[in-house]
Amino acid sequence: QVQLVESGGGLVQPGGSLKLSCAASGFGFNNYDMRWIRQALGKERELVATITTGLTTTYPDSVKGRFTISRDNAKHMVYLQMNSLKPEDTAVYYCNVQGFFMGGIFRNYWGQGTQVTVSS
């Protein structure tokens, strides 16, 4: 079955950096766009990075220039490099894939999430 396992979260001071990793399995990874989505306590989910199968990346203004998404198709891994972190980046970060899977059914898969806390 589809599995997404995030790692790399933690506590970091403002201005610091973290790199999140997502190990994907159970589906044709190379054929799907991948996303990082975050949710802060009491707030709605926010899409923070997308990488397409063609390696095109997109970011909202809130993280543009600070976050970089990448993928390793050979290892079935997705990464999120986060620099110049701010307290408002504090959230649970989720790896996400959505699309048509076996049987032509549209599905939306999530990892378990990894906590990122930016605080002095």
Written description of the protein model:
The chain contains no helices and eleven strands. The chain has strands at 3-7, 10-12, 18-25, 34-39, 46-51, 57-58, 67-72, 77-82, 91-101, 105-110, 114-118. It is globular.
Which overall shape is indicated by the principal axes computed on the Cα atoms?
globular
Strand/helix succession: EEEEEEEEEEE
Q: Which structural class is indicated by helix and strand composition?
A: mainly beta
Please mark out the parts with pLDDT under 50 across 5 or more consecutive residues, or reply none. none
Tell me the major beta sheet.
7 strands, mixed
**Cα gyration radius (Å):** 14 Å
Tally of individual helices: 0
Give the helix proportion (percent range). under 10%
Strand content is over 45%
Q: Between the first and last Cα atoms, what is the distance in angstroms?
A: 40 Å
The average pLDDT is 97
Annotation, overall tally of beta strands: 11
Notable characteristics:
120 residues; mainly beta; 7-stranded mixed β-sheet; 4-stranded antiparallel β-sheet
Short description:
With 120 residues, the chain is an all-beta fold.
Helices and strands, with pairings:
Elements: E1 3-7, E2 10-12, E3 18-25, E4 34-39, E5 46-51, E6 57-58, E7 67-72, E8 77-82, E9 91-101, E10 105-110, E11 114-118
Parallel strand pairs: 2-11
Antiparallel strand pairs: 1-3, 3-8, 4-5, 4-9, 5-6, 7-8, 9-10, 9-11
